Amino acid sequence: MEFGYTLLCEQTPPKQLVTDLVEAEDAGFDYSVISDHYFPWLEAQGHSAYAWSVLGALAQATHRIPLMTFVTCPIMRYHPAVVAQKAATVGILSDGRFTLGLGAGENLNEHVVGRGWPSADVRHAMFAEAVEIIRALFSGDYVNYEGEHYRVDSAKLWDVPDRPVPIGMAAFGARAGRLAAQHADLLISDQPVGDVGLPAGRPARHGRPGRGLPRARRRRRARRDYRPLGSFECRLFLRRPRRGLRIRIRVLTGSRSLSTFSLERVLPR
């Protein structure tokens, strides 16, 4: 069984986020995730530090614990080419401990750039293009891209980690699950794997194998199954309605110790 530590930027001052994770690593937590918000969920929470600056500090203040964004939206507030650069840099600073968790975003955070809020179909199409751009840039080569939603003109990442940063995609339904299966290295979901378009025992396939791996090894990694490691519970209290919401977090793993989250919401009786 493994236990993870969640850093909530929307309710914790940035310096405390760093000291909290240092203590979590010392206490023996196995991995960590950090939210990427522009706004807190509630004004009363009172914080919303820039997650990527915090990640740079975390990469230097810790030495063992894996790091992951939970999750970053690469379609509105951030251009995917910029997300690729940030992720590659954190991958280097953390000595390969970083995983890029991505999602299609929420109006709560993405409205600040004044581009409106597209429909789910449009956001999924933008999401797919964004991941294609990010993965291409992780190669370290020059990238030109012209899609329906994004253009990239001769972009190149000059600093990339020895191993490309793994990409996780959040999926909360069958359509998004199929998107993750096509483009992601790992799945992030609040539902059992079978309910988001991936049959039980079938991981999200790698959109592109990691550099430097023999071809036979790449095939073995792609076929490896997820297995449950364990679970723990936390309690989240909402202001309205005045009742608790328990969230049971089930950790699944495939070829890596940090591969998939399944968050099972349990409403109070």
For the largest beta-sheet, the strand count, sense and barrel status come to: 7 strands, mixed
How would you write the strand order of the largest sheet?
3-4-7-8-11-10-9
Q: Write the H/E string, N to C.
A: EHEHEHEHHEEEHEHEEE
The helicity comes to 25-40%
Which fold name is given in CATH as the topology? TIM Barrel
Briefly note the structural class of the backbone.
Answer: alpha/beta
CATH superfamily: Luciferase-like domain
Count of separate structural domains = 1
Low-confidence stretches: 204-269
- Rough outline: globular
Q: What is the count of helical runs?
A: 7
What's the multimeric state? single chain
Mean pLDDT: 80
CATH class: Alpha Beta
What fraction strand?
A: 15-25%
CATH architecture: Alpha-Beta Barrel
Notes on the protein architecture:
This protein is α/β, with parallel strands linked by helices and 269 residues long. It has a single domain, classed as TIM Barrel. The protein is 30% helix and 22% strand. It has seven helices and eleven strands. It has a seven-stranded mixed beta sheet. A two-stranded parallel ribbon has the order 1-2. Helix 3 crosses helix 5. The longest helix has 18 residues. It is globular. The C terminus is likely disordered.
